[in-house]
Amino acid sequence: MRKGIQIIAILILIQVQVLGQDCGEIFNDQFSLSGSLPNEWIEYNTSGRVTVSDGRMVFNYNASMPSAYRQFTGVSGQFYYSFDIESSRNWNDARMRLTSSSGDLLAALIFGNSGSKNIMYATGLDASNNPKAYVGLLDGSFSTKTIYQILMIVNTVQQTIDFYMDGELKASGIAFLQAATDFAKIDIQQISLYGGSGFFYVDNVKVLKDDVFREKLDIAIGDARSQLNEVTVGTAAGEYTQSSVDQLQAVINTVSTVLENCSASQADVDYAVSVLNEQVLVFQESRIWDIAEITVNVDPTKVLCDKNPIWFGGNNTYNESGQGLWDASNKRCHYNVIDLANYTGASAYRFPGGTMANLYRWKRAIGPVNERIDNLNSHGAAGPLSNEFGPDEFGQMLENTFIKHGVIVVAFNWDTPQDAADYVEYMNAEVGANPNGGTDWAQVRADNGHPEPYGVNYWEIGNELSGNWELSITNYPASGDANRGGDNILHGLVDIYVNGGYRTFTNQRAAKQTSWEQATCVVNGTPDQQFYAKFAPVDLNAEFKLTINNVVWSRVADFTASGASDLHYTVDAETGLITFGNGINGTMPSGGYNVMLDYRSGKHAGFPDYYAAMKAVDPSIEVISCWE
Prior knowledge:
nine-stranded antiparallel β-sheet
């Protein structure tokens, strides 16, 4: 049955693909229904175990490693590379490498690795130039007998790759593993399969130059056609009416003409994708369902359980005096706001917010208000926000209102585990106890006017760091800069959250202490200018490159030997602080340019490090993961 469906799919798609093949297409390997391997593909390691069957290239594993590669004239600039893969087993280890005409490695992928059961791309190389530090693209596990459509938008100018899985952006701005000027070779190896035998399939291997945006429409049309092929037309539950099938087919036919038109603009193609996706949703909702009569009986006298006080509360943000909650002039809550909130039955409060917590440093928000240092607005481009409503104001709200249960969110790898432990001590320790050693943060609290502990029991590490909208070390793009919710924000890297580690960033704008905004973070010709790498600490054992207006500057330990014309700067590894010269020892950069960085960030702590440090200060607190 699967072969029949595949034949139908090929016949349906062939019209679009043949008509569209002149639109920048470099090659498009759609394998014949059966036969030998095409001449463009060269088998190695084995003989006769990489063949073509059922319209796909098949790697027939049997304890050896069937492998094949395809070389072609190098492609440079921006282009897309796409292919489909499928495996007869989910315990599978197939690998693909993309290399340049000079042998440099652009990317390396693993399909269904036995440990992670995922589709992964490498983010680094070991000392022997073997790929390492793989990151998963699948939200779930790699599945047998499932066709995965993979699209890679490759840019040899920016040296980056964007990964799409089944039409959905999964990772963007991923740096090449090695600097490469073109893409000229695909190498596929079937390393192992569970049980020592099985099949790995590859199909629709395509490279398209320039009009990379067209592939999104191509994939969307293929997905829509696949859905039509799989449904049953009828009037029973689970079936679809003929009219709903006809409506979707009509839209597919219409948007196919856009794909066939090589002069169609990106705006035309993007609009066609949106129209088709909308009609697919309409089609999916038209599925016929059983109608059942349901009766719900409610007995208000029956109590199932007592309400936990932390089930229902508020998640406000600290900015603008807690969004109107705090009366900064009178140093108390606005009573009218508290009275209204009391009607909701809320009994818990989360501080300093959700998203806003990810770039929040609590030590900036204590002490006299006029001496507090601005924090960053995590909801936008990370501009400055003042701190009238800080940890002490939050603690006083818990003491003096009906809201008795506080939840504090700690900024994961923005504040360190040491900072988090200090935070617990500041909020919960008795004066003189100093359980964390070093600064007596309970005494600092007392000096700020509150000798008694606040007793906050619930502490979260980060906010929704799995989401592709937050600004944090786990989500920020590997290349370039981003605003919260931007298209290039990554789904969170769970390995960093759990185990800590390193991340490498390129072409990232250096920040100021209280702003990441582009217009603010510019050189201005004054002495001793200071900037920051966004994600400290900085690994100075790895490459650290700083440019201003495309001119490379040199890092020095200090300015003692620097002349007035020397393009020098210093870096503090722990804080990421970058300092320029004063015009006598080291040049003062000017011209209103941004400072651009390539660097390795880390080593960062993981959730267990935060947990251990905070529990050591106050074992009674609950330390909670907020990954999702």
